[in-house]
From TrEMBL:
Keywords per UniProt: FAD, Flavoprotein, Monooxygenase, NADP, Oxidoreductase
EC number: 1.14.13.59
Keyword Flavoprotein: yes
Protein known as: L-lysine N6-monooxygenase MbtG
UniProt organism field: Barrientosiimonas humi
InterPro entries named in the record: FAD-bind_Monooxygenase_sf (IPR051209), FAD/NAD-bd_sf (IPR036188), Lys/Orn_oxygenase (IPR025700)
Catalytic activity of the protein: L-lysine + NADPH + O2 = N(6)-hydroxy-L-lysine + NADP(+) + H2O
Cofactor(s) listed in the protein's UniProt record: FAD
Kinase listed as a keyword: no
Family, similarity comment: Belongs to the lysine N(6)-hydroxylase/L-ornithine N(5)-oxygenase family.
Amino acid sequence: MTEGDELHDVVVVGAGFAGIAMGVALKASGRDFLILEKADEIGGTWRENRYPGCACDVPAHLYSFSFEPNPYWSKTFADADEIQDYLLYCVEKYALRPHLRTDATVQHARYDAATGVWTVTVASAWGELRQLRARALVLGVGALHEPVVPDLPGLETFEGELRHTATWDRGLSVQGRRVGVIGTGSSGVQIIPPLAEDAAHLTVFQRTPAWVLPRDNTDYSEATIDRFERHPMVMRAHRTQLRATHDARGRAFTDHPGLLRAMQLRARRHLAAAVSDPTLRERLTPGYTMGCKRILLSDDYYPAMARPDVTLATDAIERVEPRAVVTADGTRHEVDFLVLATGFDPIGSYRYLGVTGLDGRVLGQEFAHDAQTYLGVTVPAFPNLFVLLGPNTLLGHTSVLLMLEAQVALTMRLLDERDRRGARAVQVRPEVVPGFMAEIDRRSEGSVWESGCHSWYLDDAGRNRTLWPGSVREYERRLTRPELVDYTFG
């Protein structure tokens, strides 16, 4: 352990969209800060997810920072490589490299009430431990980061190649191999078409079918890109239009689920146009209300599923054998390459950080029991701690970066107010949190997310602890004009 007196005003954990946005704001304010990234490069989700077909399902001109519009997006929905290039550009433009420490994994962080300082223990890639201190700790670790590995009997005995979509290596080929994909959520729907093109045979293991809408991913012409570059106001107007369209969809999830019927009809037509076999079509048709699970976008998923060399298995997986997956109907599906498209644990990112606040309370344990926050950013008993893209701040209809920028603004406002008052610490008043969580529960009750299906939006108790059950405009207003009486400074 290297003991040091390295003290920073702010330490940010994670260098994805959240960490970069926080870094840009801190840089502009003149504050001293350090960004810790466990990998050898920035990017977060878009660095780690390199599987074939990986892309964003929010339009690129909306899934980008408002303060850094990009006229050069090549198509409506950007793929992972293009998004990663955008993030790399932002790091260089805003000169964040001197504030970035890669190959730095946070082992644990502990708050000292006497000094108002966090002590953060960091491990390097070569195993050296170092302690940093910070007057504020910002967690930009994201919710879609810790892969879920299903608890399948015999999975550890599988002798072929086993990959989660989040651990895909560049250059990995399935050419001529018998491939199995477990999961038909977002990553499954994206990876299945390119795998179907290359595999000798593809077996898709589906637990619940998804609602899939056309992606309609059109290229931006050179003339359009040139116009965006020459006339930023035109590009901003395009973003505004995209935002308005997506904002309107949000009401369907919370207040007016009936508005989803038109989208549901469009999804059925999309399926019927691509899959002529009525039996297969029925097996690919969801039995739950659209929006209860994440709505997916794809133009090539259904055509891939209709291929003669693709098998859809809908019976539960009974066990995994060294070279096969056996389903409950007794069918033995031989595979030599098994892909886990099983998503992420939204609380898992916090479970392994060992963040300890007042009275020995551990953030990961608190969130595992019930992720109670105030506006998704501050947590009772964790002074000078700020969470970005935390519980109840993700969205199912538009860009989470809108939420992120509001969270960064709130964090900066609270830090500035703490310093203006000459205080050591700022924290949310514990008494305001139960009321906020009751609001989340009340507003979620009538939402489509609690209409009966099982999804990662809900915790083990069936509570919505993932999504924001209101409009983005409301969230922005509440965070950019905070009620300071809801916080203590001391």
